[in-house]
Structures are given as structure tokens and as C-alpha cells.
Amino acid sequence: MKPLFYRNFIAGLCMATLAACGGGGGGNGGTPQPTAKVTASASTIEIKNVVTLDGAASTTAGGSVSGLTYQWALTRPANSQAMLSNTSAAQPTFTPDLPGDYTADLIVNDGQANSAPARVVVTVTSPYPVASAPPTISVRLGTENVGLNGLSSTPPTGETGTLTYLWTLKSVPAGSGGKLRDWDKGNATLDVDIEGDYLVQLVVTYKGVDSEPTSVTVTVSKGDAPPVAVAAPVTVKLGEEVVLDGSASYDPDGKPLQYRWRFAAPGSGGTIAPLYSATPEIRNANSAIARFTPTAVGDHQVLFFVYDGTWKSTEIKVDVKVEKPDSFPTVNKPLVGKLVASGYYPSSSVGEQELGLRGNFTFEGYDPEGEAVQFVSAELYEKPADSTAVLEEALPGFGMPSYRKIQKLDKAGNYKVRMVLSDGVNESTYEATIRARIGGINNRPSAGSISPAAASVMVGTNIIFQGTPTSTKDPDGDPLTYKWTLRDKPDGSTATIEPVTEPVSGEPLWAKVLADKPGVYIANLEVEDDRGMKSASVAETQAIAKLTNNAPVLRSIVWNMQGISSGSEPYQLLPCMSLNFAPVVVDPDGDKTYIRRELISTPPEGIYGNGKGKGCNHTSTSFNKPGTYVFRYLISDGIAELPEYDHTVVIADPASAHGLTLARVFAAGTSNEQRIGWHWPYIKLSPTQRDGASSTGSTTPIRREMISLTAADGDYTIVDVKAEHINGNTLTPFFDGLTEGQVIRQGETVDVGLMAAFWCLRNEETLYEGFRWSFRVKEVPEQVFVFENWAGAILNNGATPWPACPAT
């Protein structure tokens, strides 16, 4: 099945060209419907006990209980293997194997119409801990390690304490050296090396009580492992030929390979240096051995991948270094390039600019021998009458000798600049003209970015390449021509690219390619306005066509809130907490996956999002009301679409909160005070998001954070209070308002400052300092507070650095 947006696109095409698409009816056309009625033998039951579902009270449209057929569907907790005894019986049974909610839906048919679905929910409890993990995992040979996820394991129902984990590798294929890592963590790793089945067992323990073991079978299949691209870096002298050798690339299954070489685009992290050098042609770019002759000294970067008819290898970067020859020819070659006159932001014009704005003159070129470009002279040798404009250095002191500007084009007309540059031997003269005018400036359009509607398709279907109307809109409103090119396709393919009208804009902003061979298809888009101005760059994207496909796998839903480690669960969920979560989806083929989430059920007036003014006093993402929220996930790899998956989140009523509730306080003591509820534990370790707080004096403590603690349902004691200097021991963070053994009484709220009294710089290289504040709640072991952060040790952008710390 196609992802929803792909289907919507096809629907859009059908609406535009009805003759090309078939039609069909829908609905019951007024036919009376039967009524489905369903009950369960228990609404709440302990694990491993049989549940009987009963749909025998369902009736036809005429009220009869006979003459009906039944169709049941059972939605289970993640990793559950419970099955209905019979999906078409009036009274099927199932045996729940995991705690959680089991949802049974029934549709009946009386021979004329289907009923609306009827639903019953059975809540399953467990008096002991339960180990839970995906029962089967399948990977291809060549995979080195497999993630094992046991974080959906649960303590006894009603308990919220911490589990301990024990993974055991029970068996491996003969001759395997497979082993487990992180065997005592919720997320373990299995190293695999050969094909076959690896059997892993998980047991979780809660307060000394072990769960029953659960097993995970990891199957490593030999067939269709992805190929591996291999190519070594190359160093040559200018004038020599570069030989790119990918012949060491291989496919684990021995399949023949296709080869693809291309230069990395300037600015992509693999800049062809010098930036404006002419890119030489790569000869035999679709062969194991390709060649090109460089035109300049510098560093080039070539991208390379191989394809085995089913899988594309990882694309690797091959560095090519072109050095100066041992001796140059008798004749030293001059600079190669041109002087370009262009507008400056917000203008992107070439050769003209709006009157009153700035004009730039830039040399775009290189020296073939790799010598530095040296500035000799530049002059504004012609300008309009009465103009007082001058030519000046654009960025003094920034080492850009071949860049000059006219800050203000003050009169309409032509401004002509002559620039003399040198490579140390040859002097070269370049000229450029910019015209200042009132209105009518032609700015350069942008090709923006393009992407495939689905990055993977099956052979025999269309690949849809999509442009972006917002980024390809001409800055002057000129009509654009979209020029699509199929830059590469698999060996033996005769496919062509065809423009497609985008349904919303009505422009040929999309394109399609009928994939006739398995492999990689690469599309380019260039745009041109009606005055002949082309986009500065060409947008590029790719998609792969396949003969077979494996559907993606939904592993788990992971909470990742305010820096909490991946997979960790919050202690309790309350309204207005800042909460984020996301699915962990793995595709066995490495295809790009597409995920859509819909909120399909909420309590009255419940939302998930910006809660400001809707029950919460902040704009962070949160649930604003207690109750049950159900999210539906739609997941696809562009080819296969998983069954809809519903994820339920239960937000507790604050009146039933247990222990201390935790909140972050902003601008405490002011009219702008806000509090965001946090989960336990709260962890923030982010050296890249450093605190920029400032100080009014070198000895004044700097507050890093302010939190509040409220005792919800009893008196609670603070213990193990610690404030630590993470990357040293000379600075002194501390709590303001919290002490060891402090008791917070029921209903009491205490504001606590996390302070850092650091007042000196330990050494010139220590620009940031790390701090950790922690404590726990004695009566509730699950409530452990950990806050980690990094703070800048140079204030005011370096204008007022702290004094050096005294020697110790």
C-alpha cells in the first residue's frame, strides 16, 4: 500500500483527469443495518486467564439474532501474542499474555449490510512483574548488531518501582561468536556474525520477584545482503590522470554490481576546491574504474556507491588530492575565471540592482597551479553623471582580496569596475558592469529542494518527484519553466522523466518516472524565468525501485522528554507536564519510513499541544486535562503500509498524584511567572545548549535554574542532596532553599534555586563548566531528581572574562 500522501496525490491526479481513473460507489445506499452487540466475560482480569467474548446478542436489521456472520478484530498491547480462538465465531476466546488493555471490535453482517463496529475493552492486570520484548526480529546477513528492547516490561499492576533486567543468550548458530552487550539494561545489544537463529531470553525482577522469562528469536538471513562500496583516496600531481578504483567493492551474495561515480556538489561538505574551479568530466562513471583529469591544484571529493540489483550500498566519499607538480611547465598558466557583478540581499540579481542598494563585484575563478589569488588593483572607471559612489573593500581584514563593493548605487545607470589580479607570475584584468535602475530588476529564481513522494517503489510503478512551490516561486513573480532531467538510472533502463502538473499550483512542478529496472533513479530540477534567468543551482534527489520489499517494523513508543534518556518511562503523567514521545520504527530494507500520527480520542476539552489558556499556563507541548488520549499511528515505507496502531496515554488527575510534583519556574516572583510540570527523573545533559546567564559581579552566584516541589498526598523527605562540579572540583554549585532531611508537608510548595557560585576561570581552554544537582524522595524511590547543565564561563561575548582562578 502507498503512504497516505501518495494516495492523496494520485487522488488529486484523478480529480484533474477523471477520464484516467475509474469510479465506484460507496455507503449502504440507505440499506438498513444490523446491530453489533458485544460483551466480555470480565472487564478486568488477571493475566493468563481465559477471556470469552460474546456477540450472540447482535441482531439483524429486523431484530433477529439468527442469520448473522461475525468478524472480530483484537487490538493487543505491544509485543503481545494473544490470538482469538476464532475470528468468525459468535463467542470466541483469547488468553492475555501481557498486562494492559485488549480491545475487541465486532462487525456483523446480515447478508445485506455490515453493522457499525461494537467494541469492548478488557483490562488485564498482573500480580507479578512481566517481561516484554518483541518476540521476533529479522535482519540481513551483514548486520553487525541488533537492538533488543525490553523497556515495555512492567512491574506488578499498581506498582511504579524500578525493574532490573537480565538478558541471556540461550543459543546461537553453530560456529557463531555472537554475544550480548548491556545484558543488564532495558536496551541490550546482540552482536551477530553469521546466518541463523539467535535465541535470547529476558527476565525482569521487581523487589526480589522474578518474572517468567520471555524469548526473542533473532533471525539472520543470508539472502540479499546489501553490497559494500570500497574505494581508496587518490593523490596525484597536476597534469596526471586520476584513476578511481571501485573494483574491490563486493556483494556478500556474489551478485554482479553496478557502479556510480559523481563529484560532490560545492558546499555539500565535499567542496571541489577551489570553489569555482571547472568540474572535469568523470569518464566511465558507471564502471568499476573511472577516470578524470583535474584542471587545478586542490582537494576534490567524489561520491561512490554500488548496487547489486536489489540493494544500494552506503554512498561513500572518496578524497582526491591534486598537488603541485615537481616542476611547472615553462609557461605558467594565468588565472581562470571571471568578475561577476551582482546584487546584494534581499536582491539576488546579476548585472543589475535596484537604485539605492548595494552592488558586489566578485572574482569567481582559480589558479591552475594552485597559487593564491593576489589583489593588484581595482577601479570604478565609469559611473553615471553626478554619482558620488566609490568602490571599497567589502570586508576589510577578512582576507577576501578579490571582493569589492559599491555600498550605494546612488544614480541610475551603469557602474563599470576593472580589477587586476595576479597568481604571483601573471597579471590578469577583468571587467564587470552593474546597472542601477528603478524597478524591473530580474532576480535569480531558486530550484529549491526536491524529494520523492516515496523514496522506495516497486519496479513497474511510477516514481513521483516533487518540487516545492514555496522555494521555487520566482522572487519577481515571473512565470517559471521547470526543467526536469533524469540524471541517472539503472543499467539497461530505458526510463524517461515526464513533467506532472502539481494539483494545487497547477504548475508542472512534479515529475514521474516509470521504473522499468531495479536500481537508483536520480532526478534534477532546474528552473528558468521568462527573461532567461536560471536558478543558481540544480536541485537533485533520488529514489530506488525494488523487486521485493519487507515492511517496516514498529518497535516501541519512546518517551523523550526534556532530555530523559531514550526508552525511559515517566514516573507519573499529569496535566500540563511538558511531554513528547515518538515511535521507534525500523525498516529491514533500510527504506525511508513515513510516519503520521493522529489524535483520535481525548477527554472532554482535552488537547495535546500548546496548552496556554486551555488549562495550562505555558506554551510547551502537554496534555491539558486528565483522562485517556488515544493516538493513531500510520506507518509506511512507501510500499507497504502497517496496520493502524493505536497508542493510549492515560493522564492522571492531579488529585490522585503521588509523592512530590515537580515543575520548572520561569521569572519567579514576577507577573510573568510560569510553571511547566516535569516528569521524574528530570535529566538535562546538553553541552551544546549552554547556559548564557550573566552576573552583575565577579563574586555573585549565578542562578542556573529554578524549580518548585509540591507535596501532593503526604509529607515527604528530601535525602541524598548533592551539587557537583562535573568537569572539575574547584567550583561550588549548591541548592538554594533545599537541604538534606528537609520535609515538605502535604500541600506545601517549595521553590528551589539551582545555583553555581563560580567566579574564576580555571584555564584559558575551559570556556564552559558542567554542573549536576541531584536528590531523591525518601518515601518514593522512583522520584529521583537529576539536573545536569553546562554554563558559559566567558560572559558578555568575551568582553568581560572572569579572572583566572588562583593557583592551588
Structure notes:
With about 800 residues, the chain is an all-beta fold. Helices cover about 0% and strands about 40% of the residues. Strand 20 (about 300-305) and strand 21 form a beta hairpin. Residues about 1-30, about 265-275, about 685-700 and about 795-800 have low confidence and may be disordered. Strands 8, 10, 13, 14 and 15 form a 5-stranded mixed sheet that branches. It is globular and about 95 Å long. The chain contains 1 helix and 55 strands. About 30% of the residues are buried.
Task: Tell me briefly what this model is.
The protein is mainly beta and 808 residues long.
The biggest sheet amounts to: 5 strands, mixed
Radius of gyration: 34 Å
Briefly note the structural class of the backbone. Answer: mainly beta
Overall number of strands: 55
Instruction: Quote the distance from N terminus to C terminus.
Output: 69 Å
pLDDT < 50 runs, ≥5 residues: 1-29, 267-277, 686-700, 795-800
What portion of the residues fall into strands of 2 or more residues? 35-45%
Number of helices: 1
- Broad shape: globular
Mean pLDDT: 83
Q: Tell me the helix content.
A: under 10%
